[in-house]
Design a protein that fits this description.
The complex is a heterodimer of chains A (321) and B (295). Chain A has a single domain (6-320), classed as ABC transporter involved in vitamin B12 uptake, BtuC. Chain A is 73% helix and 1% strand. Chain A has helices at 6-10, 14-30, 38-61, 69-84, 90-112, 117-137, 164-186, 189-199, 201-206, 211-237, 247-260, 267-282, 288-303, 307-320, and strands at residues 154-155, 159-160. In chain A, strands 1-2 form a two-stranded antiparallel ribbon. In chain A, β1 (154-155) and β2 (159-160) form a beta hairpin. Chain B has a single domain (12-285), classed as Orthogonal Bundle (ABC transporter involved in vitamin B12 uptake, BtuC). In chain B, 69% of the residues lie in helices and 3% in strands. In chain B, the strands form 2 sheets. Chain B has a two-stranded antiparallel ribbon. A two-stranded antiparallel sheet of chain B has the order 3-4. The chains are: A mainly alpha (321), B mainly alpha (295). At the A-B interface, α6, α11 and α13 of A face α4, α9 and α11 of B.
């Protein structure tokens, strides 16, 4: 997908980005101390991680997956099941969920990268719907009820996650680690080849790159991190439900990334913050939230394609150069 | 009672009929998607929502104005088609120079808006739509009873699909359309008003979805989310068939409906997923789709 915001990712100097990441980490680190509800912040962090994983694929690989909920949801179910039914410690349960999401990502990736563009989106959506029906019918997911009251347990047998603040900082560490991994990936030679494929696939092929392998790796990494987000979310909210595998969730992550800025490092985080905040404050309005979500989609596509961070970066670039 | 493979023929033909009905809707919807995609290069994500709008339009006409089924069959596609034309003129037309995925995102947003508004007023439960008098009763085919309305749905769907195919493949207007699909700039240079053709094509595709919605109203209930899950299956149908040909879309639609019906008889647990499984197999064997051409 021809993303209009390549500057935002590459224009800022690495040192500046390093400072920005440190500022972001500091803001999140002190936010609960300033009286912001930690459970809300954890929700933001989980969705921010989910959106960053998604952005890796669309923003840097040009692949629009419309089925990313399947990785988040499946990882959530596996993690919740492992923690509750098998009594696994949280770190093992999260790893199990993430691993299953990775395996699923490998299978879906192999199938989906056989087609490009619009077909890619439709295939991922259809496969996600298949996973949804599986989760609806499989006995271990408990259908409409979901897996409830998942124990948070003790991380490495030391940190008691039932304390909200301890849980919060664990989630923050997971998020920052994944964020840095994505940042590193995007700025590695691998990330550059990925961007080359996004811009001009035939040329990348003619330069001798095995395009399918790069796409598959990007898909795998994105699915794995989306799974990490889902597994963490299951431990945080002690719940794994059908909501997380439904196609509306796939749409939501697209929206977060689009609103924040596709192909920018910080865009998905900003987008997740705005959308989760919006849903939190508008939850009393019921179905109107769906209408507002749809309206944001339409406005973003028509007038605001660079997203919040993309617009800021473009403004900064105009001013600075 | 006669049996085949341990299944009563009555159940078999019953499910086959249901499959054929579902197939009729798959065919009509994937046909609309294929027509729109051909000229606009956009996957119309709001197709399911527009199908729902058609059904609600018929419902309102009957409940509020007392306008019956036959007039609805004409008015609803017209009304929804006009809203489609407005959407194309005001929004979609700004996106043609951009990546095609933006069209998908825009129509996804529109689908959320339509579905959200109707869910707000009608919840997720369905409203019943009265079957017209003349369709009560059934034909006795000897081996099974065929309800009159279901026979009409299949017949009407075949007629609509066949005439669309005829217009596009066999008339002068259709030849312009096919030419514009191949090379819009060249067709424009010959003095054909391509932008207007694009607008009307989108309106027609959307009207087709609304027509299917009116047809569906007496069978399935009229509900805000009736199109949401259907459209994903139709996407899979489109991937299986490939969007290269009109005939391909129609055949794939009916065929997969029947396969789904048969699955319900022999292995009911898989009936929800069988189409997706077929999609996976097709992707492995023939990535371009059964009737598609690689491009």
């Amino acid at each position: 997908m021809a993303v209009t915001t390549t500057r935002a990712a590459s224009g800022a100097r690495p040192a500046g980005v390093g400072v920005a990441i440190a500022v972001m980490a500091a803001i999140f680190a002190i936010a609960p101390l300033l009286g912001i509800y930690p459970v809300f912040l954890m929700k933001v962090l989980c969705f921010a991680l989910f959106a960053c994983a998604f952005n890796l694929l669309i923003g840097f690989g040009g692949l629009l997956s419309f089925g990313h909920a399947m990785f988040m949801g499946t990882a959530g179910y596996i993690c919740a099941h492992a923690a509750k039914e098998w009594g696994w410690p949280p770190e093992a349960a999260i790893l199990a969920g993430t691993a299953v999401a990775a395996a699923l990502g490998l299978i879906v990736g192999v199938l989906a990268i056989r087609r490009q563009g619009i077909y890619f989106a439709m295939i991922t959506l259809a496969l996600a719907q298949m996973v949804y029906f599986f989760c609806l019918q499989a006995p271990f997911t408990h259908g409409e009820d979901g897996i409830q009251s998942v124990p948070r347990g003790k991380l490495f047998g030391l940190l008691d996650l039932s304390s909200t603040l301890v849980m919060y900082y664990v989630v923050l560490v997971i998020f920052l680690a994944a964020f840095l991994l994505i940042y590193r990936t995007v700025h590695s030679p691998f990330g550059n080849v990925l961007k080359a494929i996004r811009e001009n696939e035939p040329r990348a092929i003619s330069l001798g790159y095995d395009v399918d392998r790069y796409k598959l790796l990007a898909f795998l990494l994105s699915a794995t991190l989306a799974g990490l987000a889902g597994a963490t979310k299951a431990i945080v909210f002690q719940l794994a439900s059908l909501t997380d595998v439904h196609w509306t969730m796939s749409g939501e992550v697209v929206l977060m990334t689009l609103l924040g800025g596709m192909g920018t490092i910080f865009g998905p985080v900003v987008g997740a913050l705005v959308i989760v905040g919006l849903e939190n404050y508008l939850s009393a309005f019921g179905q109107w939230v769906t209408v507002i979500t749809g309206a944001i989609f339409v406005v973003c596509v028509l007038a605001f394609r660079r997203g919040i961070v993309g617009e800021i970066a473009a403004w900064w670039a105009r001013r600075g150069h | 009672m006669t049996e085949i493979f341990g299944i009563s023929t009555q159940a078999l033909f019953g499910q086959l009929l249901i499959g054929l009905i579902n197939g009729a809707f798959y065919a009509m919807l994937s046909l609309g998607l294929a027509v729109i995609f051909g000229l606009l290069n956009i996957i119309n994500f709001s197709h399911g929502a527009q199908y729902m709008l058609g059904a609600f339009c018929a419902y309102f006409l009957l409940e509020l104005a007392g306008v019956g089924y036959w007039w609805s069959l004409l008015i609803a596609p017209l009304v929804v088609g006009i809203t489609g034309i407005i959407i194309e003129r005001t929004m979609l037309s700004r996106l043609y120079k951009l990546d095609h995925l933006y069209g998908l995102l825009l129509t996804f947003g529109l689908a959320l808006i339509f579905q959200g508004i109707f869910t707000n007023y009608y919840g997720s439960s369905g409203q019943p739509y009265r079957l017209p008098e003349e369709f009560s009763g059934a034909f006795n085919l000897g081996f099974m009873f065929l309800p009159k309305y279901r026979a009409w749905v299949i017949a009407a769907s075949v007629i609509v699909c066949a005439s669309t195919w005829y217009v596009i493949e066999r008339t002068k207007l259709g030849s312009y359309l096919r030419a514009a699909t191949e090379n819009p700039a060249m067709v424009q240079a010959f003095g054909v008003n391509v932008p207007r053709m694009i607008t009307l094509t989108y309106g027609f595709g959307v009207a087709l979805a609304a027509f299917a919605g009116v047809m569906a109203a007496p069978i399935y209930q009229v509900s805000p989310l009736m199109g949401a899950n259907l459209i994903i299956v139709v996407f899979a149908v489109v991937v299986i068939g490939g969007m290269g040909s009109i005939l391909g879309a129609v055949i794939t639609g009916f065929g997969l409906g029947i396969v789904e019906g048969l699955t319900k008889v022999f292995y009911p647990e898989a009936s929800n997923t069988v189409i997706f499984v077929i999609m996976v197999i097709v992707l492995i064997i023939r990535p371009a789709g059964l009737f598609g051409k690689e491009r």
